[in-house]
Amino acid sequence: MSERLWGILRDSFPRLLGYGVRVTIPLTVVSFALALAISVLVALIQYANVKVLRQICRFYIWIIRGTPLLVQLYLVFYGLPSVGIVLDAWPAAVLVFGFNEGAYMAETMRGALESVSTGQVEAGYCVGMNYLQIMAHVVLPQAFRTAFPALSNSLISMLKGTSMAATITVMEMFRQAQVINGRVYESLGLYSEVAVIYLAFCTILTWLQHKGEKKLASYGGTRK
Q1: Cβ-count burial of 193 within 10 angstroms (0-12 exposed, 13-18 middle, 19+ buried)?
Q2: What is the per-residue DSSP string for 42-83?
Q3: CB 43 within 8 A of CB 109
Q4: For residue 53, with 0-12 CB atoms within 10 Å meaning exposed, 13-18 middle and 19 or more buried, which class applies?
């Protein structure tokens, strides 16, 4: 490694890491929270089998899963201004990431809800609980436990996917690497450095996922 390249990487690393901590991680957290809220709502509507609302949910999932994330980003950030709807880059990215991942997570949550036996729902009615109480205290806790590994994978995938926000000018970690590379022309070194930081973030999330799965498994009486 040349002295020049080593100096560039040494100077750029704290800057890239800073953007990762200040922008990439918050963008991931806020987008995932939105996606989780959407997924639970859509899954509950489908689980309740309200016909009209269920068809709307199926249409939303069909549209989102059938179009590329990059196209969705461009439609919201560059397309909506033509009809008078202008969003800043950061909230536009949050909305797109949230609605995009929410469609995939909704299918995960729907499967998890349907895995809860109907006998437990009937038992809830027998002890005097109403529908909302059964959902909140019986069905959803079990569904979240079942869906936890898949939801964790969605979070990790979203963290990596936030790099696409660079295409709509969000100054996150990958975009900052592009800016630096535009000055120093060291693509291999800089993008490798970004990859290492993403790998470190994802490794931490994977470790937390494993700890969470062990904790949840202990509630069922088994330990890994």
Answers
A1: buried
A2: HHHHHHHT-HHHHHHHHHHHHHHHTS-HHHHHHIIIIIGGGG
A3: yes
A4: middle
Residue 73, judged by CB atoms within 10 A of its CB (0-12, 13-18, 19+), counts as buried
Alpha helices (runs of H) in 127-186, residue ranges in sequence order? 131-134, 140-161, 173-184
pLDDT, tens digit, 9 for 90 and up, residues 137-168: 889 999 999 999 999 999 999 999 999 999 99
Enter the tokens of residue 168.
Answer: 């709509």
Instruction: Determine contact, residues 53/45, Cβ cutoff 8 Å.
Output: yes
Measured distance between the N- and C-terminal CA atoms of the chain, rounded to whole angstroms: 44
**Is the full-model pTM beyond 0.70?**
yes
| Spans of all domains in the chain | 3-219
192, 209 Cβ separation under 8 angstroms: no
Q: Which CATH architecture fits 3-219?
A: Orthogonal Bundle (1.10)
Is the Cβ–Cβ distance between 223 and 216 less than 8 Å?
Answer: no
